[in-house]
Amino acid sequence: MSASQPIRRTLGTGNERLRGRVLNIGEVLGELSTDFPGISASKIRFLEEKGLVTPQRTAAGYRKYTTADVERLRFVLALQRDQYLPLKVIKDYLDAIDRGERPESLPGGMSLTPRAVSEQLAGELSARTLARGLTFNELVRESGASADLVKSLANYGLIAAPDNSSENGLYDEHALKVARACAKLQSHGIEPRHLRPFRAAADRELGLVESVVAPLASRRDVASKARAAETAREISDLCLNLHSALVNGHIARMES
């Protein structure tokens, strides 16, 4: 199953094989583990705590998950994994669906297409290729950047391969986005050496985020780690919004 499949299913329609069945949390993990290898019972309970899914309970207090619950979890996990959306944004969308509304997009106009397989990001690249990582030559081809530009981006720390080798390592989708953006910036005369402040700013932002979530991240239970990751995403989104507002505000003043 590709990364795109979970999101393309109609929310709540369910898998025909599971229709009418009631599953325990172990069976739910079995259904989701292929698409989401890191899924755990603690993660599912965390999503329940946040109101993303509400399973029924037996008289003894055990959770009972329906097919719709499983597909709802799949939908949430796919959006979180592929678009890094905060759970609050996803919950607001799901709450609108539960009220009988039919929002065309997520708040802020975000697309429901997973980031890993969106046409804008992947072009003709398959989700499977992105999942395994990109070779140097694939990154050059798919980004539209020259080989020299990609090497320069690696030298300036703007992209990195797992083994820190621009020739032999595999690059992820983030490296692809960076290379594509920098290829377009180069057409305006902006070279990698001009972009070093972005790397420094990103490192400072990451340090700020890590300092805030450190108490949660230091705990060993999965639920705490999930909360830390969600808090980190939320803070990062707010920082990006702040940066965009500051820059766009200055550009607007240039026009007046």
TrEMBL record:
Recall the GO molecular function terms of this protein's record.
Answer: DNA binding; DNA-binding transcription factor activity
> What does the UniProt keyword field contain?
DNA-binding
Tell whether Glycoprotein is among the UniProt keywords.
no
> What's the superkingdom here?
Bacteria
InterPro entries assigned to the protein according to its UniProt record, in alphabetical order: DNA-bd_dom_put_sf (IPR009061), MerR-type_HTH_dom (IPR000551), MerR_fam (IPR047057)
Locate the HTH merR-type domain: which residues? 38-96
Q: Which Pfam families match?
A: MerR_1
Task: Please verify whether the record's keywords include DNA damage.
Answer: no
Query: Gene3D superfamilies given for it?
Result: 1.10.1660.10
- What is this protein's name? MerR family transcriptional regulator
